[in-house]
Amino acid sequence: MLERQGEAIRFHPTLLAFAGHYRFEPRPVAVARGNEKGRVERAIRHVRDAFFAARSFADLADLNAQAEHWCRGQAADRPCPEDRTMTVRQALVQEQPLLLPLPENPFPVEEQLAVKVGKTPYVRFDLNDYTVPHTCVRRTLTVRADLDQVRIFDGAEMIASHRRSYDRDAQIEDPHHLQALVQFKRQARQHRGVDTLTRAVPACQLLLTRAAERGTNIGALTSALLRLLDRYGAARLQTAVEDALRAGSPHTNTVRAALERQRAARGDPPPVAVNLPEHVRRKDSPVQPHRLDTYDQLTTRDDDDSQSSPV
After folding, report:
1. What is the CA radius of gyration of the chain?
2. How far from 185 is each of 125, 179, 180, 181, 182, CA to CA, in Å?
3. How many helices (H) and strands (E) does the chain have?
4. What is the pLDDT, as a whole number, of residue 306?
5. Environment class of residue 283 by beta-carbon count within 10 Å: exposed (0-12), middle (13-18) or buried (19+)?
6. pLDDT of residue 33
7. Which are the contacts of 202, defined by CB distance < 8 A and separation ≥ 6?
8. Mean pLDDT, contiguous 10-residue spans, the chain (311 residues)
């Protein structure tokens, strides 16, 4: 019940849909009258004592199979609570002709939960993490779970399906999700390199285009040109790339040969690549000095206070 004002009761919509599907009427008990549902509580106690006590099982499927066997066997052969002269099985045989048949399509009893995806493509459900496509990070999705399967929806579209895990802190992963994420990161890394290269050396844009037309690996070419950019600088690399384009040879070796010709003509020594850690490379970053005259206010205020105070 969602709300109760005297005799006016507002049931949960899912309960009303379930009752309408199986055609029964939900009847709430009175407030603070637990004895009105004693039959229900007694049935739960009977299941706990007669079925679960000292029972072992391998997994949930094994437990459900044992429960079905117990219901059709031992539980059906016990005396009927309403008439001790017959068993529950015999009472069911008498009542079954008076009961409505069950609908052919069972009511969906999946657990539904709205989940928030963080920075990583995982959703948290029932103490475990399930992968989703990397395009769904930082979004709110819907998890629909039954006893065997966990399905994840973006609106009405199912974007992931996993076998449900009953472990704790496990990561259930779809290999396709991980492969797509790795490919996306590789492409993003390549795009960042291309952007850095073309901003520093505009002629590289045309060089990469010509190389792609010939089927060259753009990622390897970009990495090689970035290394040349670090060694020789943007201006010299721009001139070397223009020479390679005029020669009709958009290759790293052509650009490197042009740079070496330029170096030899200037009489410069060969460049040596020095790979420094990130904190060392940032050591010489320009820092804006703080204005020191702001500290004068502290001494000025003390002087004013000492002059105004009585002796």
Report:
1. 38
2. 26, 10, 9, 6, 5
3. 11, 9
4. 52
5. exposed
6. 73
7. 238
8. 86 92 87 74 87 90 92 91 90 90 88 91 94 92 92 93 92 92 77 82 88 85 86 88 90 90 86 71 71 75 53 46
Q: By C-alpha distance, which of 95, 100, 102, 145 is closest to 123?
A: 145
Which ranges of 234-308 does DSSP label H, i.e. alpha helix? 234-246, 252-266, 278-281, 296-308
Taking a C-beta distance cutoff of 8 angstroms, is the pair 141, 153 a contact? yes
289-293 contacts: CB < 8 A, separation 24 or more? none
The answer to whether 162 touches 172, Cβ cutoff 8 Å, is yes
- The whole-angstrom separation of Cα 142 and Cα 123 is 10
Angstrom distance (rounded) from CA 38 to CA 153: 40
Per the CB < 8 A criterion, the answer to whether 178 and 131 are in contact is yes
* Spatial distance between the Cα atoms of 242 and 203, rounded to a whole number of angstroms: 7
Burial class of residue 255, CB neighbours in 10 A (0-12, 13-18, 19+): buried
